[in-house]
Amino acid sequence: MKFSYTHKVFSIALSFLVLFSTLSLTIEKHFCGDTLIDVAIFSEAEICGMQDIKMDQDGMMEKSCCKNEKEVIDGVNKLVTKSFDDFHDLQKLVLIAYSYSYINLFEELPNAVIPHKNYSPPKLIKDIYVLDETYLI
Q1: Measured between alpha carbons, how far is 128 from 133 in angstroms, rounded to an integer?
Q2: Which of 25, 32, 52, 87 has the most CB atoms at less than 10 Å from its CB?
Q3: Residues 22, 75 contacting (CB under 8 angstroms)
């Protein structure tokens, strides 16, 4: 029973490991000057409204103080699965010996025989402690 719980926990943990290792993320950040305004994951960051190009007094275009940064974190694109036949003979031998010795660690003990399991105690007719005048303190 204990082995089945650990097996389930390891299975779930490994499935989450595969899920998160293949997950790709896009993180967008919007800065206004040097101040971080918004951060968004899986969507576009909200803009502050000051990103429009402005004309200065001389008719020259000024650059906006706002900037967007986009950070892409790529996950694993291709998972490699191997079968038992892909291992060398020595690797197969070590894997079999290790798994056999590991499985034998968890052999269950035989059920212990309890000799007094079906024994019912005798019915008390008289209180022996009172008769013998023995009192527990």
Answers
A1: 8
A2: 32
A3: yes
Collect contacts of 97-106 with beta carbons under 8 A, ≥24 apart: 106/3
- SS3 (DSSP) at 28: strand
Per-residue model confidence as pLDDT tens digits over 91-111:
999 999 998 888 877 767 778
SS3 42: coil
Quickly count: other Cβ atoms within 10 Å of residue 124's Cβ: 7
Closest C-alpha to 79, from 10, 19, 12:
19
pTM over 0.85, yes/no: no
Q: What is the DSSP string of 55-120?
A: E-TTSPEEPPSEEEEEEEE---S------GGGS-HHHHHHHHHHHHHHHGGGPPPPPPP-TTTT--
User: Is a pLDDT exceeding 60 seen at residue 83?
Assistant: yes
Question: Nearest Cα to 28, choosing from 18, 37, 11, 40?
Answer: 40
- Whole-angstrom distance, CA of residue 111 vs CA of residue 117: 13
